[in-house]
Amino acid sequence: MKVATCTKLVLLLSFVLLPGCVFIRPPVKLPPPYADPKGSSREDIEDIQQQLDSLELRLSALEGSLNKLRRELEGMAWSTPQVETVVVPGPEGPVEAEAVTPGDVLEFTVVEVKVGWLSGPIDRDGDGIDDGLVVYVSPTDRDGDATKRVGRVQVALLDVTSTRPVTLMSWDFPPEQVAKRWSWIARGYYFELLWQGREPPKVSGCCLKVTFTDRTGNVFSDTKNITISRAKPEVD
Q1: Any idea where the domains of the chain sit in the sequence?
Q2: Is the separation of the CB atoms in 43 and 51 below 8 Å?
Q3: pLDDT exceeding 90 applies to what percent of the chain?
Q4: The dihedral of CA 106, 109, 113, 114: what is its sign?
Q5: CB-CB contact of 154 with 210 (8 Å)
Q6: What is the fold, at CATH topology level, of the domain defined by 107-227?
Q7: pLDDT tens by residue, 106-128
Q8: Over the stretch 147-157, which tens digit does the pLDDT of each residue have?
Q9: Which of 20, 137, 149, 231 has the most CB atoms around its CB within 10 Å?
């Protein structure tokens, strides 16, 4: 029995090891060279492409908003604190001390300019005839607060009684002059303007127009209707 079994094993090994005999493996099914491993269809790919295009559009919009915020940031300025030596009363007499003026205050970009409600004609000698104008100009930020931003200020006195407004007089102040006219009490820039030619305009009903141009080129304007006295009041 054992001899027969050994004989079968020897014959089997001889067959496998015979020269020219090749061991053939069963065929394996390979995937196509360009097949999607997830089995996505053409519709799925088109949908993904549409989502990608949408995200690219959103990214472009966000980049535009970012650039706008950067421009606004460039228009901001930090004020530098000023240290002054002042004399204050002490327990043993006056002493010197350092006073720090408000500083490090962020001044926001101008979004609007307002003509102060006190703006209008002024009679300097009290004779009843107006000698010029007093104009208050207040640049304001996004919160509606006055901000000390320097820019070009143009003031125009307009005749609005005709079909089209006509400029009767005008004044122009560059930024370096405007910077010297800030009033903390009025919270704006103060201008006292005498009549050009020393004579008041020939019309009493006029419009006061103020134009403010900041350093980035943005232009803001505001108007106020005023009445000018051209003759002395009659005395009974």
Answers
A1: 107-227
A2: no
A3: 27
A4: negative
A5: yes
A6: Immunoglobulin-like (2.60.40)
A7: 446 889 999 998 899 998 888 88
A8: 888 899 999 99
A9: 137
- Could you tell me if 151 and 110 are in contact, meaning their C-beta atoms sit under 8 angstroms apart? yes
CA-closest candidate to residue 137, choices 124, 158, 152: 152
**Dihedral angle, C-alpha 205, 116, 185, 122, nearest 10 °:** -10
Residue 227 to residues 118, 155, 160, 205: CA-CA distances in angstroms?
13, 16, 12, 5
Structural tokens at position 117: 């409600």
Number of Cβ within 10 Å of residue 138's Cβ equals 21
Q: What does the alpha-carbon distance between residue 234 and residue 229 come to, in Å, rounded to a whole number?
A: 12
Task: For the chain, state the CA radius of gyration.
Answer: 43
- Asked if the model's pLDDT at residue 32 lies above 90, the reply is no
Global model pTM greater than 0.70: no
3-state class (DSSP) for residue 80: coil
Name every residue whose Cβ is closer than 8 Å to that of residue 65 and which is 6 or more positions away in sequence: none
| Beta strand ranges found along the chain (DSSP E) | 77-78, 83-90, 93-100, 106-107, 112-115, 120-122, 132-140, 151-159, 166-173, 182-183, 188-194, 205-214, 219-227
For residue 19, what are its two tokens?
A: 């020269």
